[in-house]
Structure formats: C-alpha cells, structure tokens
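Practice problem: predict the structure.
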Amino acid sequence: MYKKMNKIIKIKFFVFFVLITTFSSAEIEPPFKNISVSKQPIYYQDILFEDFDGKIINLKQKNSKIYVLNFWATWCLPCKKEMPSLDKLYNKYKKIKIFPINIDNKDKYKSQTFFRNLEIKNLSIYFDANSNLAKLFRLQGIPTTVILNSKREEIARILGEIDFSDKKFINWIKKINNASY
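Answer:
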C-alpha cells in the first residue's frame, strides 16, 4: 500500500512539474500587433555584416543573451522615427546587443548625417552592403527588426516601426529573454 501511494505521489508531482514547465515556456504575447513571435526558433548558419570601417562582423564571435538586428535606410521615414527609441533602449540596457544595419548602398557620409541629425549617440552604424542579410532574412520592407536568442536563432520579428523605449516592449523583451536587467 505504501509503495502504491508513493508511486501516485511521484506521478502527481511529475504531472505538476510538466504542467508548470509547459505554462512557463508558453508563447509570450507580444505587446504590439506588428511583432510576430517564432513558434520554433529559426537557425541561421552565418550572420555576417560590416561595421563602419568595413570590418566583417560575425555574430558567432559575439556573446549576448539577445541580439536585435534593426534593418534601416537613410531615406526611410519610419526608420527615422524609430531610431531614437532604439538608441534609448541600447543606452538603458547595454546587455542587449543592438546592430542597426543600413541596407542602403554603403554611404558612410549619409549614414553619419542620419545619426547626427537624430542625435544618435549610443549606437554604431553597420552595413549590409551586398544585401546578403536582406536575402538571408527575406526582408520584405523596412524597418524590420529581427530578434535573436543567445544561439543566434530568430525568436521574433518586428515588421515596421515601433517605439523601442515603450515600457510594454521593454517588459516583453525581458520576458522572452528571461533576463534580469
């Protein structure tokens, strides 16, 4: 009788543990309609782009719990509107690696002017000069922001402009990352 009771208790504990684990890893509802969360993280073999000086950046050589790749262009009005909030996000949460990647032709002067006019002080300028990342991520417009986990897998995508400094977004990104800032 004791063995049977012990077995029932173990089974109940196992079921409870499975339920708790399932609910805790359930999809977290994004705060804005233009954010889509990947049901399964999407793995990308190589994520390569250029820094301002033309040096190739390989995300495999970076270490972060979360990466934000923001694709923009100097002629894009929604990009212009959201870039200051992305700068604020980076200034406040430096643990998040943010890479604003210009998909324009590699025009350093225009990019610097864009950042200077918007008073962007915390972010660096990166380029997708050959549109390799635009093709890899199958971008359909800009701004597009791709959020990657520590394994560099796509876990979410933002199509269009958002306010990255909005508390709802910040709380959401913390939850999906299980990070403590």
